[in-house]
Amino acid sequence: xxxxxxxxxxxxxxxxxxxxxxxxxxxxxxxxxxxxxxxxxxxxxxxxxxxxxxxxxxxxxxxxxxxxxxxxxxxxxxxxxxxxxxxxxxxxxxxxxxxxxxxxxxxxxxxxxxxxxxxxxxxxxxxxxxxxxxxxxxxxxxxxxxxxxxxxxxxxxxxxxxxxxxxxxxxxxxxxxxxxxxxxxxxxxxxxxxxxxxxxxxxxxxxxxxxxxxxxxxxxxxxxxxxxxxxxxxxxxxxxxxxxxxxxxxxxxxxxxxxxxxxxxxxxx
Length: 269
Ligand SMILES: Nc1ncnc2c1ncn2[C@@H]1O[C@H](COP(=O)(O)OP(=O)(O)OP(=O)(O)O)[C@@H](O)[C@H]1O
Ligand SMILES: Cc1ncc(COP(=O)(O)O)c(N)n1
Fold this sequence. Notes:
With 269 residues, this protein is of the alpha/beta class.
């Protein structure tokens, strides 16, 4: 039996809704063998972040080498990369890997807690973004990357295009989760804009939606599905996960990684 493999390079969430834990659940659901390199151990739950312990860059390098020396990597993603030293070892490692790279440029948790050092953002933009096959910023992250405000639909499309043409990413998916109305995301794939729309679900349980979405794109890419279609399928996956999210914890609850199976049955009817 042949199996494709996905790797996540990210921080942890012991409450299981975001970070590495969300990524591995998503890979498993989408039939890609899941592997992980931990960047930071984060003591967090649905209400916020209590403490963070960053692993030494050397240890991240050792994990990357351990996994890539032995295992096939058909696609990989990154989430929380807190500082420049970590970014550097990842940037040095990437050229050996010939697989699609999905970058979720995680900057703050939904609770507002910062997950990346302010002074390392420029390094990420200049040295890591150009390696990304696709980058998946939410609106505040896209604003930070480009240093400009994004308000209208046209601004979002233009931002996706500029992240490719000015910052050098292969493709950019600007997500509209933080706007009102329909949840619409725009992908610029280097030649055209694709839009992905879903009903906005009235829920507070959106902890880890960005992690789940980028992990789903990674899993589909690992299986050889092309980017516009991988995003389309990942959007269906994350929408189902939000729609059937769990009222767990006292804050913003986690999404439901099993829900897509029920939804798929509905779509096929
Ligand atoms: N209430 C909602 N209803 C439907 N779709 C949503 C909702 N909130 C977010 N989404 C969708 O979920 C995906 C993740 O988007 P979002 O902009 O929330 O990412 P994010 O802010 O990076 O996530 P995170 O909360 O993990 O940081 C996008 O496809 C977005 O359109
Ligand atoms: C380790 C880690 N990575 C990413 C997020 C973002 O997820 P959210 O914005 O939903 O809290 C998080 N909370 N923790």
